[in-house]
Specification:
Blueprint lengths: L1 E7 L4 E3 L2 E5 L3 E6 L7 H13 L3 E5 L6 H4 L4 E5 L7 H12 L3 E6 L4 H14 L4 E5 L9 E2 L19 E5 L2 E5 L7 E8 L4 E7 L11 H14 L5 E5 L7 E5 L10 E7 L4 E7 L4 E3 L9 E6 L3 E8 L5 E9 L1 E8 L5 E9 L8 E5 L1
Parallel strand pairs: 1-17, 1-20, 4-5, 4-6, 6-7, 7-13, 16-18, 19-21, 20-22, 21-23, 22-24
Antiparallel strand pairs: 2-17, 3-14, 8-10, 9-11, 11-12, 12-13, 15-16
Length: about 350
């Protein structure tokens, strides 16, 4: 294992690891158990969102209430043929204006609901225009486009909608074909707090039994990423499958600047962290010290630890490591205030690697 840490005195923090999104938001789903039953869609979406870390609640009420929306980052409205009248539009306008993200869908034939969605976009929110065409459950194609498209083209084919529509003022998410002017999914931003409304038509798109169900899940995940619904972020390095890495951005460590806690285990792994700026912290297990880089590694295999601290003093490195062939290179530079401690257990009877320490 090789762990490399750098600390400088400017204002840039760079963590060279690959992010994996772990969502931590509250979602609410309006659905129907009536004539246009969307309970299957509800169960499928709820399961997928929970797998992503969302807390999901739902309601079969035909009334959109401010209490339902309160505290929710995401609302998906698939409430059958239920309309969205004056109170519904007012509550949605206020909630989206405060940063909420609404996905609202209507089925073919729900004339009043479709009209109210159009009114919500064009009149209540006044974010743009839309013009709906057609009406067919299976005859339309749907392809993810732009920032909502996958880099793998086969993953961009989505379940077909009930209707296609032209739109302006927002961003096309999916179209009837990659070159079509007819949209199947469309998003408008609203207000200064990052809120948005996404519109599509056809509940069959959200069924788990659809041929392109997996593509739809990936598409909606990308849509949530575009909307900024990535509440918490965890990270793992791109080194090997044998590695486990945990990173959190808050911890019971006293420091006045940014802090990060890394716990890493595995064999023959390399982690590189570059950290710039004053009062930064990188801490391993059990650390409670202010202004330190603490690399704590516990593996029965090869490991090398390289720590470079540069800047204007206040250096503090505490390293605890054990292994069969472990070595340490430590450089502390800058204007004094340097401390150093090492606890190392060598499991190799012939000796472990070289420990080199430079303090200036």
């Amino acid at each position: 294992m090789k762990l490399t840490l750098f600390k400088y005195s400017s204002i840039l923090f760079l963590l060279l690891v690959l992010p994996i999104q772990a969502f931590a938001n509250d979602a609410f789903i309006y659905y129907s158990t009536g004539g246009t039953n969307t309970s299957s869609q509800y169960n499928h979406i709820k399961s997928e969102l929970e797998d992503l870390g969302f807390t999901v609640t739902g309601s079969t009420s035909g009334t959109v209430s401010s209490s339902d929306l309160s505290g929710k980052e995401l609302v998906i409205d698939i409430a059958g043929t239920s309309n969205c009248g004056s109170s519904c539009k007012t509550n949605y306008e206020s909630w989206i204006g405060n940063g909420g993200h609404l996905v609202i869908i209507a089925p073919n034939g729900a004339t009043n609901r479709i009209g109210n969605i159009e009114s919500l976009v064009e009149s209540k929110l006044s974010v743009g225009s839309m013009s709906i065409a057609g009406g067919c459950n299976t005859c339309y194609g749907s392809v993810a486009v732009g920032d909502y498209a996958s880099s793998t083209s086969s993953e961009n084919t989505l379940p077909g909608p009930d209707k296609v529509f032209t739109a302006s003022g927002g961003t096309a998410m999916a179209k009837n074909s990659s070159s079509s002017t007819w949209n199947t999914w469309y998003n408008w931003d609203y207000g200064s707090n990052g809120g948005s409304i996404t519109v599509s038509f056809g509940y069959g798109q959200l069924l788990s039994t659809h041929q392109y169900s997996n593509n739809m899940v990936d598409f909606l995940t990308r849509a949530m990423q575009e909307a900024g619904l990535a509440g918490t972020t965890s990270y793992t390095s791109s080194i090997s499958n044998a590695q486990t890495t945990q990173v959190t951005t808050s911890r019971a460590v006293t420091h006045s600047g940014n802090g990060i806690y890394i716990e890493q285990s595995g064999n023959s792994n390399t982690l590189v962290v570059t950290q710039d700026g004053d009062d930064n912290l990188i801490a391993g297990g059990g650390s409670t010290t202010n202004s330190l880089i603490d690399a704590e590694i516990a593996v029965g295999s090869d490991q090398t630890v390289d720590v470079t601290q540069d800047g204007t003093g206040n250096h503090n490195t505490s390293i605890s490591m054990s292994g069969f062939d472990a070595g340490l290179d430590l450089t502390q530079q800058g204007s004094t205030n340097q401390t150093y401690s090492l606890s190392q257990t060598c499991l190799n009877a012939n000796g472990c690697g070289t420990t080199t320490l430079i303090q200036q």
